[in-house]
C-alpha cells in the first residue's frame, strides 16, 4: 500500500495529525522553494484533480480503488457523490478508525491486516472490506488483552462516534446502524468534484 508523506499532505493543504510538532502543521503551505505565496490558483481540472488526491491521501487508498468506488457509485440510484463517499466511509479500516478502536486510519489498517477483528463472527483481515448496515464488528478474543487494545480502551471515554456507528464500550462491539449522511463524511474534500473528474 502506498505510503503518503508529509509533502503529500502539505501539497494538498491537509494536516496529517493534530500534533503541533507535525511538519504539516508547522508549514501549512505547499512544499517548494517559493514558500507560502509562490503557488498559482488551480484551474477547474486542477481543482478536481486535487480533490481526488485528497481523498486518496486521507483514506490511504490507491487510484484504482477510488476509480472502482466511482464505477460502483454511478450504477446506483441517488446522488453519485454521496454514494461515492458512503462506499469509502464504509471500508472496514475506516469504520474501525471512526469507532475509536484505532487512533489513526493507518493504525486501523494495520490492526485489520493483522486479524484483530471479526465481522458477523467471521475473521476479516482485508482493510477495504465493505461493511453493511446491521453488520457487527468485534475484536477477536485472543486480541483483547494486547497492549495496543488496552491503550485504545483508555482513549474511548473521549471519543464520539458518528451517528451511523454504535460502539458498546465494555465489549468493544461496533454496530453499523445506517449509511453515513453527507454531513458526517470527511469534509476536507468534495466528492462532487471527484465525480466531475471521472465523468469528463
Automatic annotation (TrEMBL):
Positions of region (Disordered): 1-41
GO molecular function ontology, one term from the record: rRNA binding
Basic residues bias (residue ranges): 1-14
Biological process according to GO: ribosomal small subunit biogenesis; translation
Keywords: Ribonucleoprotein, Ribosomal protein, RNA-binding, rRNA-binding
Boundaries of every RNA-binding S4 domain copy: 90-157
Pfam families in the cross-refs: Ribosomal_S4, S4
Gene Ontology cellular-component annotations: small ribosomal subunit
Top-level taxon in the UniProt lineage: Bacteria
Domain Small ribosomal subunit protein uS4 N-terminal residue range list: 3-89
Composition-biased stretches (Basic and acidic residues): 15-25
SUPFAM superfamilies: Alpha-L RNA-binding motif (SSF55174)
Function of the protein: One of the primary rRNA binding proteins, it binds directly to 16S rRNA where it nucleates assembly of the body of the 30S subunit.
PANTHER family attached to this UniProt entry: 30S 40S RIBOSOMAL PROTEIN, SMALL RIBOSOMAL SUBUNIT PROTEIN US4M
The family this protein is said to belong to: Belongs to the universal ribosomal protein uS4 family.
HAMAP family for this protein: Ribosomal_uS4_B (MF_01306_B)
Quaternary structure and partners: Part of the 30S ribosomal subunit. Contacts protein S5. The interaction surface between S4 and S5 is involved in control of translational fidelity.
Name of protein: Small ribosomal subunit protein uS4
Originating species: Candidatus Buchananbacteria bacterium RIFCSPHIGHO2_01_FULL_44_11
